[in-house]
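# step 3/5: fold
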Amino acid sequence: MLYRTVPKTGDNLSILGFGCMRYPSTRTGGVDEGRAIRQIRHAIDAGVNYFDTAPLYHMGKSEQVLGKALAGGYREKVRIATKLLHLSVFERGDMDRILDGQLSTLRTDHIDYYLLHSLAGASFERMRNLGALEFLDAAKKDGRIINAGFSFHGNAEDFKGIVDAYDWQFCQIQYNFLDEQNQAGTEGLRYAASKGLAVIVMEPLRGGNLAGRIPDAVQKIWDEAPVKRSPAEWGLRWVWDHPEVTVALSGMNDEVHIDENLRIAGEALPGSLSPEERMLIDRVRDEYRRLMKVGCTGCGYCMPCPFGVDIPGCFADYNTSALFPHDRAGKFQYIGHHGGLMGGKSYAGLCRQCGKCQKICPQHLPIPGLMKDVSKEMEGMMGVMVPVLKGLLWCSGKLGKVKRAITGETAHA
């Protein structure tokens, strides 16, 4: 495992961080706690020492599972990062109440890396007016938190303002080869590093979209590389090639992917990609931008929808259909996931254009308008196909098999 140093403290962090947003799931959709705990401990044994969680991940289960996993001496081997979501705060007292609850849930007396979560310009000003910076000072003084930081989903100018507003030890930004110019981007990455902040990168593989099923046009470009690597390895190496990056978070939930990431994290020194390899990645980036219809990362901040739409899920199947136009599985998956074939309905056509999701989307996507596009493209025959497919599946006795295929665990995240 390679490690990089937090400039202001000298703390050494593993370049691979374990993102606790996408634990493995059971067939009924809950967290597979036993498997998640085994995965976490395996990563620690292999040298990972940075674990990123939040109260809203897995509807409150993420912190609980991590707390359990760190029992038996594992807590002393790692740094815990968790977050204070600005939408949960209405007054100064909420901040202490939430932090104290997190300490209890995580079974610890301190948080190593504590973030004001999902900030942009207006949300930061609101939190500052509520006393968030004074709260951080007090919590650091009494030892409940060690390092203060923030995660960001806004534009580069707002990002610089937040960096300059407080003596942060670190920040967290979305960064991958598709997002060089989005949100904080490369400009923000370099600015934060110039101010002495450790930079934690989230979504290095765009929620797994850069490492799962690869479009033929993209794979042809990867196949041109003299050194053969998986798409996940290319994406992670691109992030770690930047010396300003301290940690890249991966939402790992499969043992094979964890071991692959561990191997890469033992090799990916900054500046190790050749100019020719970087040019190859640029070509892949351009091809993805040509093919994709929606820049959704699957973060789930837009959820729950008051009308039952699975917004990230609809976008994922919509993009899959666009990236693989000759594979009909995308639309069948959409019907299985959202049309009521396997349970409740969560399709895009349920959207009532309330706009609640758009206001809190970190990617600033025009979600209500995009839902109309998804509905038009994906739902044309759904009303007929769902009852027909239900009948066929029940008659053939294969509903359970199809359900497991459709609701199986996510790919490399």
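# step 4/5: annotate
Residues 311-406 form one domain.
# step 5/5: archive (pending)
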